[in-house]
Write a structure and sequence with these properties.
Blueprint lengths: L1 H29 L7 H8 L1 H12 L4 H13 L2 H15 L15
Helix pairs in contact: 1-5, 2-3
Length: 107
Amino acid sequence: MRLVFRLLGTWLIGLALIFLVIDGTRSLAANVIVFTSLGQAWSQLHIASLETVSSFFDSRFFADLLEVMLQALLSYPAFAVLAVPGLVLALAGRRPRRERFLRQEQI
């Protein structure tokens, strides 16, 4: 399971770095800080899946709350939305530390 967490976390961090480089080059070209929102990136990649997710949330019990949460998530920068769960998954998949303290004879 740790392997799956680490692989998924690494992929998400890699995608976040790609979006960060894209935003950086756009910012350099425009002489203004430019962030691509997750909604813009998702619309450019595959708009049909964005509409499908939106219609799925509209059919749920808390549709109004889910729609507000989805719109808030889509307004954040794409690199941040991908980096945060990527870091959490990568940290969840790391190997636990065996020894935290040194014994007297190890010093």
